[in-house]
Design goal:
- About 0% of the residues lie in helices and about 45% in strands.
- The protein is built from no helices and 10 strands.
- Strands 2-10-9-4-5-6 form a 6-stranded mixed β-sheet, with no helix packed on it. The chain has a 4-stranded antiparallel β-sheet with strand order 1-3-8-7, with no helix packed on it.
- Strand 5 and strand 6 form a beta hairpin.
- It is globular.
């Protein structure tokens, strides 16, 4: 499986970004997928999960601001991030939930004025 996250960048506080993650292979439709992030000097954390049945959960710090979604036809999972805060600055990754041992290339999100 290959995991390719994209869509990161530099944004001011209060701004928005939409991340995408293309998943190669045949495992997409039948599994739960998550967005994870790792801030400098911190452990990687799970931010949002969407199951094969589209049940969604979020970590408390992003509830009401982030929205996870997926397109089974495109084998792609998305993360719409609104009202971004400096503490959202991190490298964002997608992976299965629970995660595979393999981590693809993440995408850097920097929230700063």
């Amino acid at each position: 499986v290959q995991l390719q996250a994209s869509g990161g960048g530099l944004v001011q506080p209060g701004g928005s970004l939409r991340l995408s993650c293309a998943v190669s292979g045949s495992i997409f439709r039948s599994n739960a997928w998550g967005w994870y992030r790792q801030a400098p000097g911190k452990q990687r954390e799970l931010v949002a999960v969407i199951t094969s049945g589209r049940i969604i959960t979020y970590t408390d710090s992003v509830k009401g601001r982030f929205t996870i979604s997926k397109d089974n036809a495109k084998n792609t999972v998305y993360l719409q991030m609104n009202i971004l805060k400096p503490e959202d600055t991190a490298v964002y990754y997608c992976n299965k939930a629970p995660a595979l041992n393999y981590w693809g290339q993440g995408t850097l999100v920097t929230v700063s004025s």
